[in-house]
Design the sequence.
């Protein structure tokens, strides 16, 4: 069953703050939920489906449904790390297409900054079978991505300066976002001179650690038609699990090699049709590898593709992360998925900052990479359109 | 032994022979009697053909570095370890294994470097499988 055109993103909201002291995680979930529903022109009583992931407390959707006061016919706790919320859009579209619900609310919230959790946060994976074979070697999140970067450099000649171009483009966009955690532009030199965290990744190759959250409202075509707000149709969805595969892992590709083609096929589009892309940017290497895997350039040519302003809005080859992305703007709860969808919606509604708004942005792509490039990940691709 | 932290690792019936062997300076991994795959990480079934007929087999302990990173400063118990090397080594028998490269100057580590197993054992009996350069072992 294709979900093409069977569901619409009617509401999108990003929490404006990046440090939120003295609030609970569930409170921030409620704030972003209210924001997205107001954006859509709907209310809590209209919601009949609710989606959340591992950042939600307790039983997830069960606990949150009660806390928010929702009366539901459908819930989904799918957890794939930072990509969860893109997968939730796919699952919401499927549930809507199947007639199980009409108004689906998706929320993300977290307070890693105020709680001092740092990148990656505290996991709840203590009993997972892989833990004794991975977690006792000082493998920080950054070190995992650094190994992926190192192997990419070895196989394809990618350089640290090319990775730095990704941060430079993100920062050039973030200067226009008054809510961005980092609003200063940077040069390739500044990225290369920033502290080496896990060789070959520098401090400025890493995403920010922020409190905050975001929410989306996905609705049926019937509901979308009644709303005055510009709704964005879901045209294509793709998902893939990539794991260590019995110790035969290849560090140079992501699950996007599978999720991307699935989404393009469902949408009936190809990479050349995409005017704007939100690419998950936990680290610069995440972007580089994903761009190759989604087919925006040949495998191994990502370094060339991102150089010379290739990703800079509005006139680069492929304008990306025009809110400043996770590298500069926001990575709430150490999960950048929902903000990827939110900025794609802004672009398609022609509501991005004028300095970075892509002209005639007919088709946009949002991609999430949850988990770790060095071990297991959930890769989720969405292709969204402009016309209602 | 190296100077990196060791750990109290939780064992179970699926992994106990692996850990017991490390204490005897031996690397044992399950091999599938049905499809001959070496299984990593150890478990009670083969994730390639789903057979439960596995046999523990002694590995060479030799391999090469597939990728690595020099971590400037670790977290928690690793904070005082100084720069250390996290790596994936490709064992001669096939699996790519997450580990540390020890007893080598970090700047000398490189992809394809031949490595051999180090059964890194503390006085208290804790043990981890690490690797070092063949030339320094
Ligand atoms: Zn087998």
Sequence:
């Amino acid at each position: 069953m294709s979900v093409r055109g069977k569901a619409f993103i009617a509401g999108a909201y990003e929490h404006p703050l990046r440090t939120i002291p003295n609030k609970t995680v569930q409170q921030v979930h409620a704030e972003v939920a209210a924001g997205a529903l107001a954006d859509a022109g709907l209310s809590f009583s209209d919601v009949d489906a609710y989606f959340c992931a591992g950042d939600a407390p307790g039983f997830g959707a069960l606990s949150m449904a009660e806390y928010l006061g929702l009366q539901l016919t459908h819930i989904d706790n799918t957890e794939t790390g930072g990509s969860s919320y893109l997968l939730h859009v796919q699952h919401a579209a499927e549930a809507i297409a199947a007639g199980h619900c009409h108004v689906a609310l998706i929320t993300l919230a977290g307070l890693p900054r105020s709680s001092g959790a740092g990148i990656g946060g505290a996991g709840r994976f203590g009993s997972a079978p892989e833990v004794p074979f991975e977690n006792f070697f000082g493998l920080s999140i950054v070190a995992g991505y650094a190994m992926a970067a190192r192997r990419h450099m070895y196989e394809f000649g990618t350089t640290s300066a090319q990775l730095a171009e990704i941060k430079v483009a993100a920062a050039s966009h973030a200067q226009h976002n008054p809510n961005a955690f980092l609003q200063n532009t940077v040069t390739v030199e500044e990225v290369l001179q920033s502290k080496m965290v896990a060789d070959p990744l520098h401090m400025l190759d890493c995403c920010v650690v922020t409190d905050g959250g975001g929410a989306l409202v996905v609705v049926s075509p019937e509901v979308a038609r009644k709303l005055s707000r510009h709704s964005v149709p879901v045209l294509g969805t793709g998902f893939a699990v990539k794991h260590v595969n019995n110790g035969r892992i290849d560090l140079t590709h992501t699950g996007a090699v599978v999720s991307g083609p699935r989404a393009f096929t469902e949408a009936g589009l190809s990479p050349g049709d995409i005017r704007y892309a939100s690419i998950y940017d936990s680290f610069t290497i995440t972007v580089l590898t994903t761009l190759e895997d989604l087919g925006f350039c040949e495998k191994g040519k990502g370094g060339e593709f991102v150089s010379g302003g290739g990703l800079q809005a509005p006139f680069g080859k492929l304008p990306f992360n025009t809110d400043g992305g996770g590298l500069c703007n926001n990575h709430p709860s150490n999960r950048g998925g929902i903000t990827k969808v939110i900025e794609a919606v802004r672009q398609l509604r022609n509501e991005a900052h004028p300095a970075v708004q892509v002209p005639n942005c007919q088709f946009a792509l949002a991609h999430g990479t949850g988990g770790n490039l060095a071990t297991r990940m959930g890769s989720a691709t969405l292709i969204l359109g402009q016309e209602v | 032994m190296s100077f990196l932290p060791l750990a109290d690792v939780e064992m179970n019936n699926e992994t106990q022979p692996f850990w017991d062997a490390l204490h005897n300076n031996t690397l044992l991994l399950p091999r599938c009697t049905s499809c001959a795959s070496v299984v990593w990480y150890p478990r009670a079934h083969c994730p390639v053909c789903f057979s439960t007929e596995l046999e523990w087999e002694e590995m060479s302990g030799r391999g090469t570095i597939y990728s690595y990173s020099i971590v400037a400063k670790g977290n928690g118990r690793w904070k005082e370890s100084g720069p250390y090397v996290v790596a994936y080594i490709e064992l001669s028998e096939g699996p790519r294994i997450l580990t540390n490269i020890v007893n080598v100057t970090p700047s000398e580590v490189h992809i394809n470097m031949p490595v051999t197993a180090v059964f890194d054992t503390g006085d208290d009996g804790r043990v981890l499988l690490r690797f070092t350069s063949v030339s320094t072992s």
